[in-house]
Amino acid sequence: MARYLKIILFFVFFISSQSYSPAYTTLPPIAKNGILDLRNWNFETDGTVYLAGEWEFYFGDFFSSKDFKSENPPKMSGFIKVPGKWNGYKIGNKLLSSEGYATYRLNILLKPQKDFMAFKVLDMFTAFTVFVNGKQITSMGIPGKTTETSIPKMSPHITIFNCDTEKMEVIIHISNFHHQKAGVWNAIRFGRQNYILKVRDRAVFFEIFCFGSLLIMGFYHIVLFILRKKELSPFYFGILCLVFVIRTITSEERFIINNFLNLSWEQVLKMDYFSIYMSVPAFCMFIQSLFPEEFKKIVLKIILLISIIFLSTIFFNSA
């Protein structure tokens, strides 16, 4: 048991150290009324910033930069918080559901940058295109106005661009017809190219390290159980490690999936759900095998029954 405790404590410490981010020397600004003022933000000393806060929100249409410069600019639905979902957003007397399409818009005030800048883009539900000053700089999937014309995709990435103006207009076309949550769920991270690349490289290293370590530990303990067959704890611990392997490759960067596995959007999402729902019974079975007297079997059976119900929703329902 002491060996398992050491392994668990090591990973808790390692994950905590990776997720820790140093305190900002300057409090990061947030967008208010669709404007993010970064004129006093030093990207060299202060680092990166998230494009978070209040964005302009235009539901039910895709608008371009030209539309906002016309004599009759689009009528705004309101301001919406990023990161967040549009589910339940109120327009008049109507509460929005998860299905639909919209335009997000943010104006950024900043000093002209000599170096190349970059966006680090994570998931938005479930397809989107990003424009900067009227030019498309990145996309994920194909945003559409119907289920048939919208193609969902999850592929975190970095896009690099030149930013030599004092005002930057960011427009996002986003649609969702495939997920229960819709909207800009993760704020875009903005900063100098070299800073953003370092952030990405660190996240990729963390994913690969956890993937390799957990995979080796998982198979090692399963083989250990096959050879001994006296204790169930090595088997359950091995299963728990393999469940965490799935969780590692289906969240955050998804470097391994995007580069080595050809999986659809729905397959990745279901694998992610599976790892979440399966982690609870796997952990409980492992703990019960270590403390059979303290952890009653009736409690374990109830947990397993509930877990089976949740797991069945993955296989019998769409993403």
Describe it:
- The protein has helices spanning 2-19, 65-69, 193-228, 233-250, 255-260, 265-290, 297-316; strands at residues 35-37, 49-50, 53-59, 78-82, 90-91, 94-95, 100-109, 117-121, 127-132, 135-140, 157-161, 167-176, 189-192.
- The protein is globular, with a radius of gyration of 23 Å.
- A hairpin with a 2-residue loop joins strand 9 and strand 10 (135-140).
- It folds into 2 domains: 2-15 and 198-316, no CATH class; 31-187, Sandwich (Jelly Rolls), CATH 2.60.120.
- It has 7 helices and 13 strands.
- It is of the alpha+beta class and 319 residues long.
- The strands form 3 sheets. Strands 1, 3, 4, 7, 9, 10 and 12 form a 7-stranded mixed beta sheet that branches.
- The relative contact order is 0.11.
- Helix 3 runs antiparallel to helix 4, helix 4 runs antiparallel to helix 6 and helix 6 (265-290) packs antiparallel against helix 7 (297-316).
Low-confidence stretches: 16-23
CATH class division of the largest domain: Mainly Beta
Oligomer: single chain
In the CATH classification, which architecture of the largest domain applies? Sandwich
Order of helices and strands: HEEEHEEEEEEEEEEHHHHH
Describe the sheet with the most strands: 7 strands, mixed
The total of helices stands at 7
Distance between the termini: 38 Å
Task: Estimate percent helicity.
Answer: 40-55%
Find the count of extended strands (DSSP E, 2+ residues): 13
Structural class: alpha+beta
Structural shape: globular
Number of domains: 2
Examine the coordinates and then state which fold CATH places here, giving the name of the CATH topology of the largest domain. Answer: Jelly Rolls
- Percent range for β-strand residues: 15-25%
- The radius of gyration over CA amounts to 23 Å
CATH H level, superfamily name of the largest domain: Galactose-binding domain-like
What average pLDDT do the residues reach?
89
